[in-house]
Amino acid sequence: MTALGLAVLDLAGTTVTDAGIVEDAFTHAVVREGVEEGGARHDRMMRYVRDTMGESKITVFRHLFDGDEETARRANSAFEEGYAQMVAAGRCAPLPGAREAIEELRAQGCAVVLNTGFSPRTRDDLLASLGWTGLADAVLSPADAGRGRPYPDMVLTALLRTGAPSVEAVAVVGDTPYDMRAGRAAGAGLVAGVLTGGQQAEDLRAAGADRVLGSVAELPALVRESARVPRPATVS
Asked: Which end of the chain is more exposed for a tag (fewer CB within 10 A), N or C?
């Protein structure tokens, strides 16, 4: 394994626990658009939301409303409003050991970029509520990179922002299959799933995880281990 010099970490479910407010904020948004909570259409929508957890939220709304861009954007704004209210009510918290892991990685010389399917506004509100503004080397949303997961854009943008030497030196860590697919698409040297978001280990491995960790708190040990692995001898 190449020595890891950049960790690209997901937010909700990986470094932060949000007590189900993503689904609650989606419900807030679709009800605003006339979808009956608890009805058959709402249930179908929530199944899709769960299946695509980790994807850009505006992309999810475009699917939910059959490509109607105006409705999707209006619903996305309502999502952001609802999520912000729930964050302000104290429903988000760092996962145990997450802040310490980020600080330890950076102390080891490994850059850290936080990435998410949230818009920059929602992401920044969340980080401010946790006191995490400035904790990482950079924070990215799909709007900062081009496309969201499962595309590799945010991972590759993180590499360019931090000056990591190669994709093989990048670790991508997340709690959803979409995180794993993005890491694989980017060619990351390590793609690791975590079990703190509710996904099963076999689903993360099927989506491309090299390793499945109990939590992000285990990542600094893997980075230290990568630095100790001898590089293959070159043949002249």
From this structure: C
